[in-house]
Design a protein that fits this description.
Number of domains: 1
Structural class: mainly alpha
Number of strands: 2
Oligomer: single chain
Distance between the termini: 94 Å
Strand order of the largest sheet: 1-2
Helix content: 40-55%
């Protein structure tokens, strides 16, 4: 049980209080602010299009091709040698 700011108690089975959650949000916001900006090559969409094309190529090259089955036992046509 955790005591809330208004004096009541709140059940928090994972131990994450509102203050802890707020601190986590602030930490994530600070970490995201430190990340570099995407390059222009990613912003114009060309890199994504290349990635998509490579993904499709890999997927298609891994596909199993199914060939039409032929009869294992040929049907006699009457022209075979005896």
């Amino acid at each position: 049980m955790v005591e809330a700011t208004d004096g009541s108690t709140q059940f928090s089975p994972d131990g994450l209080t509102e203050a802890v959650i707020d601190a986590l949000i602030v930490a994530v916001d600070e970490e995201l602010a430190e990340m570099p900006a995407p390059t222009s090559r990613l912003l114009d969409g060309a890199a994504r299009k290349r990635w998509d094309r490579r993904y499709v190529d890999r997927t298609l090259s891994g596909a199993v091709r199914v060939l039409a089955a032929r009869d294992a036992m040929p049907v006699p046509t009457g022209t075979e040698a005896a």
